[in-house]
């Protein structure tokens, strides 16, 4: 009993020590402004037309068109009005990968899997915007 009490006290001391270190560090912002301070943009970054090359093998494709007015919620996914396999041919849009129609157990579905329903969790619009932080990433084809 005494040994477990000693371990509990040591564990609590370690947590408190690390917690005070974290509280002493100052968090800086990438925006260069406080959270509640409005930041006025000098320019609106334009959408890049056409498809951009992927930087690595499993990178989700970037969206080559604006999606600002697209509704994607629990009831509606406007992306599927063009990209679902039943409509892609008539709309001349790329069809979703077959992986989007597999459930967690690998069974094929006739509709998009729930795990792939919210497109923007993986896919983002292409934009000509500067990097927020320094990036030294090299595409895999450059190696």
Automatic annotation (TrEMBL):
Secretion signal span: 1-22
Subcellular location: Periplasm
Pfam family, one: NapB
Keyword Signal appears in the UniProt entry: yes
Keywords in alphabetical order: Electron transport, Heme, Iron, Metal-binding, Periplasm, Signal, Transport
Keyword Methyltransferase: no
Listed InterPro entries: Multihaem_cyt_sf (IPR036280), NapB (IPR005591)
Family to which the UniProt record says this protein belongs: Belongs to the NapB family.
Role of this protein: Electron transfer subunit of the periplasmic nitrate reductase complex NapAB. Receives electrons from the membrane-anchored tetraheme c-type NapC protein and transfers these to NapA subunit, thus allowing electron flow between membrane and periplasm. Essential for periplasmic nitrate reduction with nitrate as the terminal electron acceptor.
Subunit structure, as described in the record: Component of the periplasmic nitrate reductase NapAB complex composed of NapA and NapB.
Protein's UniProt name: Periplasmic nitrate reductase, electron transfer subunit
């Amino acid at each position: 009993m005494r040994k477990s009490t000693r371990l509990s006290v040591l564990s609590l001391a370690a947590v408190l020590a690390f917690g005070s270190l974290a509280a002493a560090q100052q968090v800086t912002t990438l925006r260069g402004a406080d959270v509640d301070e409005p930041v006025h943009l000098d320019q609106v970054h334009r959408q890049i037309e056409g498809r951009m090359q992927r930087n690595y093998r499993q990178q989700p494709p970037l969206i080559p068109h604006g999606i600002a007015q697209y509704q994607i919620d629990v009831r509606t996914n406007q992306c599927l009005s063009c990209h679902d396999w039943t409509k892609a041919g008539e709309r001349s849009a790329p069809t979703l990968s077959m992986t989007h129609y597999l459930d967690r157990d690998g069974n094929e579905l006739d509709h998009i899997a729930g795990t792939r329903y919210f497109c923007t969790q993986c896919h983002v619009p292409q934009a000509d915007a500067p990097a927020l932080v320094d990036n030294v990433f090299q595409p895999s084809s450059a190696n």
